[in-house]
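Submission sheet (multi-component)
Chains listed below:
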Amino acid sequence: MNIDSIRDGYVIDHIAAGKAMRLYQMLGLDGLDCPVAVIKNVPSRKLGRKDILKIDSRVDLDLDVIGYVSPNATVSVIRDGKVTEKRHLAMPQRLVGILTCRNPRCITTTEQGLRQEFVLSADGRTYCCKYCESPA
Amino acid sequence: MTRHLLNILDLSVGEIDGLLRLASEIYDRPADYRDACRHQILATLFFEPSTRTRLSFESAMLSLGGNVLGFSDAASSSARKGESVADTVAVVSGYADVIAMRHPKEGAPMVAAAHSLVPVINAGDGGHYHPTQTLTDLMTVRREKGRLSGLTVGLCGDLKFGRTVHSLLGALTRYGGMRFVLISPDELRLPEFVRRNCLDATGVPYTESRSLEEVMGELDLLYMTRVQRERFFNEEEYLRLKDSYVLTPEKLRSAKPDMLILHPLPRVNEISTEVDADPRACYFRQAHYGRYVRMALILALLGKEKIEP
Ligand SMILES: [Zn+2]
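Outcome: structure written.
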């Protein structure tokens, strides 16, 4: 695989240095059989250092996961070797089914069929469980 | 849209004032309201026992001419067979017009509200919220002090785990001219996030003290909570500290003549029974106000009385 020539897929750029593996796991990329490149500690003018992920497949990407792990990341959509769309991410207001509440007294630990949901707090940095309000 | 009460901050200051005004009116003229909820049903779903709170809700509904049904602990409910909160409420909300629910898990009433056809009142969810206790506390201050502003409020005892304290603090900081004195041992100080969100964010002035006696003379209101043995790492510390947070007639000597003493009850030994005869002790009246505040809340949620936002 030539990592510079994604034909149909995504380039996730400007990932905060050191976060690529976390993102790799949270996006479930280890379960894919298409080419995936993890590029770490690339010199960057803006960030000093950054990570990059390249995925040569039209998988469903959960942009909320990317925004949560690294809000400054950008996602370029590649079709036929060309960038067709570039998206800037931000911290999402809600994270559904991504994090798990660690509070043992939370209703999410016992209620069947209840999806985990976290909400961005007023401070704009922390996510708290929608149900018990414990920080993630 | 069906209104619920899950957290005291779901209510605006205006709505709280409206509820407290209505509660006071019912307190003064209960006969006017004794048929207000005739043929209506309150379900008390208590997934953990709390006799005091349940009786207060049932008394409120019965005083409005309504009926009550429900269960008083998880063992006698379908939860024991593994039924979810969502399913229980989906069923019961077809049997009742309003639900009061207590549950050991935090956030359970939010799940209930999402699946209920009728208003859900949070009657306590673990260590999380207990909004009708806060409404009761506010009504007590309003009735006994005549105002909910310009007060120096002492919160004493377990400020770390005491949920009634956090909830009351959140509600009181929305009124003007309040000042807080936080009285606790180091081990039980107000948690950082509560301090940040309730006090620092609103700029409300506060001081901290390890000694109740030192600050007693400043207070217009003293809210006592229980210092529990199991909150301490070692027995020695507990024994050394527990008496400093027990209210006695001697400690009250330096208190203002019109200071109010509140306590969410049940008390164990944090207020000596000798204090009960002191006219400043209003914790039993406080418990009684709880009935009227719940009556007002039920009337409002059932749409019988309009509360302006
Ligand atoms: Zn939770």
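Remark: Chain B is about 35% helix and 15% strand.
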